[in-house]
Design a protein that fits this description.
Blueprint: H1 3-55, E1 66-67, E2 70-72, E3 77-80, E4 83-84, H2 92-97, H3 105-112, H4 133-142
Antiparallel strand pairs: 1-4, 2-3
Length: 143
């Protein structure tokens, strides 16, 4: 074995030792981070348990509130947010009436032209049997 080979082996051994020390340091940091996370998780779980205990005696409120966002597509400004406390039972008439107070006069004129669309035209198809959707719905209500 020559002196050059011995020096290169010693350099490789020193390099491996340095890598091992670095790996152990990184592993130690990782281990400390995992311990910190376990402690934080334990605190979070305890807080959730206490919150569930507090909420056990509280009645849940499941009211729906519908929100209509009225935007001006040219200026991209919000003109208003009418709320509907009827929630899921919002009708087209309510959705048309609510923004009238929020809209500029020019746009209100467009809404004044709104007329409910009554679909009394007869349709083809097995389900409707040649009846208009309104007539079909009326007959189904009787049954």
């Amino acid at each position: 074995m020559s002196a050059a080979e011995g020096t290169s082996r010693e350099a490789e051994a020193a390099k491996r030792a340095a890598e091992k020390v670095q790996w152990r340091a990184e592993r130690s940091v990782h281990h400390q981070e995992m311990m910190r996370r376990r402690q934080a998780d334990g605190l979070w779980r305890e807080g959730r348990r206490q919150q569930r205990e507090r909420e056990a005696g509280v009645a849940l409120v499941t009211a729906w509130i519908a929100v209509l966002v009225v935007l001006d597509s040219c200026t991209r400004q919000c003109l208003g947010l009418p709320l509907f406390v009827v929630g899921a039972d919002v009708t087209a008439e309510l959705a048309v009436e609510a923004p009238r107070a929020l809209l500029p006069k020019e746009l209100r004129a467009l809404l004044l032209e709104f007329r409910p669309y009554y679909d009394d035209r007869p349709h083809q198809g097995y389900e409707l049997a040649g009846l208009s959707p309104n007539e079909y719905a009326a007959r189904m209500a009787v049954v």
